[in-house]
Amino acid sequence: MGRKGKRRDVQQKKRDKRLRQREAGKAKAAAEQERAASQRAKAVSGRQSSVGAEVLAIAAESSATEPVAKAKKELNIPEYKPSEKSLLKVRDLHTRFRTEAGLANAVCGVSFDVYEGEVLGIVGESGSGKSVTSLSIMRLIPNPPGEIHKGSILFQGKELLDLGWEDMRRIRGKEIAMIFQEPMTALNPVYTVGFQIMEILEHHENLSKPEAFQRGVKLLEEVGIPDAERRMTDYPHQFSGGMRQRVVIAMALACDPSLLIADEPTTALDVTIQAQILELMLKVKAKRKDAAVMLITHDLAVVAETCERVIVMYGGKVQEMAPVSQLFKDPKHPYTLGLLSSLPKPVRGKKERKLKTIPGMVPNIHNFPKGCRFSTRCDVVEDRCHDNEPELHKLGDYHYVRCHLVEGDKIEV
Amino acid sequence: MWSYFARRFLLAIPTLLFSTLIVFLVVQKAPGGPVEAAIMASQMGGGQGEAGGGAVDMANNGVSQASIDAIKKYYDLDKPIHVRFYRWGKKILRLDFGVSSNFGKPVWDMLKGRFKISISLGLLGFFLSYMICIPLGIFKAIKHNGYFDFGSSVLVFAGYSIPGWAFGMLALMYFASPDYGYEWFPLNGIQSSPDVFKELSTWGKLMDYAHHAILPVGAYMLGSFARLTILTKNSLMENLGQDYVRTAFAKGLPERRVIVVHAMRNSLIPLATGLGHIFSLVLAGSYLIESVFQIEGMGMLGFKAIINKDINIVMGILVISTALSLFGNIVQDVLYCIFDPRIRFK
Ligand SMILES: Nc1ncnc2c1ncn2[C@@H]1O[C@H](COP(=O)(O)OP(=O)(O)OP(=O)(O)O)[C@@H](O)[C@H]1O
Ligand code: SF4
Ligand SMILES: [Mg+2]
């Protein structure tokens, strides 16, 4: 055994050495690849349409946390003109949950459009119904306890709420893709990243395993994962948070969806990685000009950098909806004003340390007031606000506000 | 990682050595043994005690010192304890567990036959319960709070609260005796009488065995049934609520695939726990169930050996079940690694 064992040992060592050399070579190649990928990404974002390009250019200079107001002031944003074709029409959407404390009306009467090719932001404090709205569009509201009990969701002219389970399944992941907040838990821990990407392609595009594998490698390369071919066989826990979110994005982009819904895709990530991830997400538009992105976030700075139009939600309702430039220049709703003034603002010379916050707290979902949902926290509240719920007023072409103090055509879209 | 398992195997050796030492000491120090057995036998009149002959010694209750010495010499009791342990250990390595003091047969030969019965009953029960409980648990999780879920929970928990042997007796009454119910199953044993059994084809032998095994295996499984079913259901429910399941649905995978491929695979991880323990349980058998069905298994043998102070059998069983549970634990860790790629032992 002795001599044989020794010989085997020597062979093993040689093999190890060769392996190490190969690994080192791979790593070098990977680093180059990554550099190339990031350059490509920059080129792509440079080609971004109208507002996106300028906002991103500014964003590149100022980091994600830096004041948006400054960026906005220096920008001369052109008048907002969406493509007139609406990809998604949500009308009077009501989603509720049966809880032990009673019915929780998480979304009550939300209406909006998503136009082809636009990046639409949805902002609002925690509990305002942003996630429930997006899950309703995907028809992923857990039932029980939840149900969509009223409304309509038209996607490319099809009523999603009338679709059977199988037809809806064909749309999910293929036509409408979704990115969730938590990259750490969004991937199945017991399957390789490759498996999880390939299964989408196998199901929606009927690709064979080798074809799906090749496409998977390409997708990972596109989202800037170095050494993609080898990484396909790695498990999610072998990736960092940012890298996992890249994988999730690769999965969402796998079938070139026409609508990408991203529910707080960067909240769980480091500030430095946030910008990269946002940039990547917008890649969907580089692939498909008519594709739209719905970006849900807490962060108005993110909205300023990436979106063209924004919806402000509170208490399960749309409170204000406007093109981003308009919203920052001329916010109308007291809630929007509150959100904006709680952003850090630079004052010439010295920095103002204290941030304004909206007084009070979001009421419990079961105790929203009868009239205006914001009346418990509004600093310009009037008597009528307590009794009557304001309707959505149309101010401009794309500007809607739900407040009694705003004069305009009353409409319910 | 494989070096981890190699180390585990190597570590198992001193562990086994140490635990056999404890077993050895406990059994040696316990009252009762071959000498006492001989004394008892002589008091009952006749038996081994007379063999030595010679003067009657009152202090030893009528057994001569010479015969006691002979017995002690035969069982190595005249040597100091470490020598005895060394000699005993050396023999065990050759699977020589000595001779049963009650039956006069080599212990290993007696154990061998019972292994087959206990292991086949145990494994059958084990596989059957996994094969029934896992699908049942899945179904209950999907139909959570439905009529089926509720009804099956009542049954499963009723089964859980009935001791296996009691169920065995009832089953025998109603399904194996014409006086009370039906005579669908044989009353006792694990196969037909040897004369009949010999004549059967391989398939026939198998069927004969299954026919005999159904009731005892049912009694075996009864207790673990509830635990396994509820464990499967709960862990599947928990996994169905996880983010990655929502991701899988959002990817547009069919519901079947999401449940079976994504959620179920994760639910197997807790099911692997306890596999190692089951290993030694299967071997130890159950005295009560074996005696209800009059099966000559490990449980029965072990019980009788303890009652009769048949040291060699007791020690043999203890050593083997210790070794098996050590082995079972390693198997369990290997299974963990297979089911959960996040677990990597170093
Ligand atoms: N499964 C559920 N069961 C009961 N209530 C729910 C459920 N999911 C959401 N809700 C309720 O719906 C309301 C809106 O929740 P939603 O997750 O849409 O908020 P959000 O705007 O996405 O907040 P966040 O910024 O914290 O993600 C919350 O008040 C929540 O209590
Ligand atoms: S309607 Fe009244 S309470 Fe509501 S936001 Fe306008 S002013 Fe404030
Ligand atoms: Mg949310």
Summarize the main sheet of chain A. 9 strands, mixed
Provide the CATH architecture of the largest domain in chain B.
Answer: Orthogonal Bundle
Q: What's the pLDDT, averaged over the residues of chain A?
A: 79
Number of strands of chain A: 13
Oligomer: heterodimer
Order of helices and strands of chain A: HHHEEEHEEHEHHHHHEHHEHEEHHHEEE
| Coarse shape of chain B | globular
Counting DSSP H or I runs of 4 or more residues, the number of helices of chain A is: 16
* Biggest interface: A-B, 28 and 22 residues
Determine the CATH topology of the largest domain in chain B: MetI-like fold
List bound small molecules.
Answer: adenosine-5'-triphosphate, iron/sulfur cluster, magnesium ion
Number of domains of chain B: 2
Query: What would you call the shape of chain A?
Result: globular
Low-pLDDT ranges of chain B: 46-57
Record field, number of beta strands of chain B: 0
Distance between the termini of chain B: 6 Å
Strand content of chain B: under 5%
- By DSSP (H or I, 4+ residues per run), the number of helices of chain B equals 15
Q: Mind describing the biggest β-sheet of chain B?
A: none
Précis, in short:
The complex is a heterodimer of chains A (413) and B (346). Chain A has 413 residues and is α/β, with parallel strands linked by helices. Chain A has helices spanning 2-46, 50-61, 68-74, 130-138, 165-171, 183-186, 193-204, 209-222, 228-231, 241-253, 271-281, 283-287, 300-306, 324-329, 334-341, 383-387; strands at 86-99, 102-115, 119-123, 146-155, 158-159, 176-179, 259-263, 292-297, 309-314, 317-323, 392-394, 400-402, 409-410.
